[in-house]
Specification:
By secondary structure, the protein is of the alpha/beta class. 39% of the residues lie in helices and 14% in strands. It is built from 16 helices and 13 strands. Strand 12, helix 12 and strand 13 form a beta-alpha-beta unit. The chain is globular and about 60 Å long. About 1% of the residues have low confidence.
């Protein structure tokens, strides 16, 4: 029996407005702690009807009631630090936050353990600050004038909020380095889960390349579209987002934007692809490992977490710079046979990132953190019931 079974645990997640990699992490964690109550700024329950998230109790912030919150939640970014601090988490022994923005900024008591599973320190305020400013060049003047002081304020709040966390768990060594750079805090590394069951190598291959992503500027799908349009090679883009219209204007007739697909359709399309192409500096990169699970090789930028997660495999071809010329050189090398594809070996590599491994490591990390927290705080936990009764909160 786990020492955590007798404890009340709360989860905090930035927002639940799409079903991507972060939401699959939350789903896997909920399978370990099905009674955990999820607190999130904005929630679209229609997206999670058939998942563990849909079966969980989800509590939202006041932002849920703001106009167009589910679709335009990012416009409320300046309010998010205030909103996340309004969650009342006093009834819980352990708070586990999942954060790429503000979830780690919740307020907890001295006798509560706060562990943060961090996807990245808010990249728009830290290591990709100047990239974000560049992506706003075409934005209205008032927005461009306002964004710098807003991000400065968010960076100050974020650094302060990090001091409220007892223990950080990063999704990769790359992100552990980002945590150290931003907060001067050490972070344990537990790689997020990859759903291997969705994917299988196909018996035959088609001639197209593929990429899968939300169509937002930081994913650099424009780099991939421009490169493949120039090369004339067939490319399929799976995903939706605000960049779709611009990408469609950039794309040649050899580039197809297929939108979002159901899981079985996506798995079939991916497994027949010639190679998966990745354009962004990734914090971890679930999609390339899903390609491996489908027996598909990967062409990726040698930055961020991907050189770490694809390390030791024979199915990755890296390019050095986020430019069409650098990517085109890598694609031409791939076309010339620079990578020998062994689908079984690729799938075996992906297996080391499976869900069961993630769940075991997460539970073990929480048990260690709780034991160490109790050692540091001495008798504070023994006084918990008395303290809770005094302030009128059920322990």
């Amino acid at each position: 029996m786990s020492t955590l079974d007798r404890l009340d645990i709360a989860f905090v997640h930035d927002w639940l407005t799409s079903f991507g990699g972060a939401e699959r992490v939350l789903e896997a964690a909920l399978e370990c702690f099905p009674d955990a109550v999820v607190h999130t700024l904005v929630h679209d329950p229609r997206l999670f009807e058939h998942s563990a998230i849909g079966r969980a109790e989800v509590r939202t912030s006041f932002l849920q009631r703001m106009p167009f919150a589910r679709r335009a939640y990012r416009h409320y970014l300046p309010l998010m630090p205030f909103a996340v601090e309004q969650f009342d988490l006093r009834p819980y022994h352990i708070v586990l936050s999942f954060s790429s923005a503000v979830a780690h900024g919740v307020l907890v008591r001295p006798d509560q353990l706060h562990v943060n599973y961090i996807y990245t320190p808010a990249r728009f305020a830290w290591h990709q600050y100047h990239d974000y400013l560049g992506w706003l060049k075409g934005a209205p003047v008032l927005k461009r004038l306002a964004v710098r002081p807003i991000l400065h304020y968010l960076r100050l709040w974020d650094h302060s909020a990090a001091g409220r966390v007892d223990h950080f768990i990063a999704i990769s060594e790359w992100i552990a380095g980002c945590v150290w750079r931003a907060y001067r805090r050490r972070a344990e590394v537990i790689h997020p889960p990859v759903n291997l069951q969705r994917f299988r190598p196909a018996g035959t291959r088609a001639d197209y390349y593929i990429t899968m992503s939300r169509l937002v500027p930081q994913k650099r799908i424009d780099l991939i579209v421009e490169t493949f349009t120039d090369l004339g090679l067939p490319l399929k883009i799976v995903g939706e987002g605000p960049e779709r219209r611009r990408l469609a204007q950039l794309a040649g007739p050899n580039v197809e934007l297929v939108g979002w697909l159901a899981d079985d359709e996506l798995a079939a399309l991916l497994s027949r692809a010639k190679a998966y192409v990745h354009g962004a500096e990734e914090d971890f990169g679930i999609a390339p490992l899903e390609a491996y699970a489908a027996g598909v090789p990967v062409i990726a930028l040698r930055r961020g977490g991907l050189p770490e997660t694809l390390r030791g495999s024979e199915g990755a071809l890296f390019y050095e710079h986020p430019t069409p010329a650098s990517l085109a050189t890598a694609i031409c090398r791939f076309e010339a046979g620079a990578v020998e594809v062994d689908p079984i070996a690729l799938r075996d590599h992906a297996r080391s990132f499976g869900k069961e491994r993630f769940q075991q490591e997460l539970v073990a990390a929480l048990e260690r953190a709780w034991t160490g927290f109790g050692d540091r705080t001495g008798e504070i936990h023994l006084r918990r019931d008395e303290f809770s009764e005094r302030i009128g909160v059920n322990a």
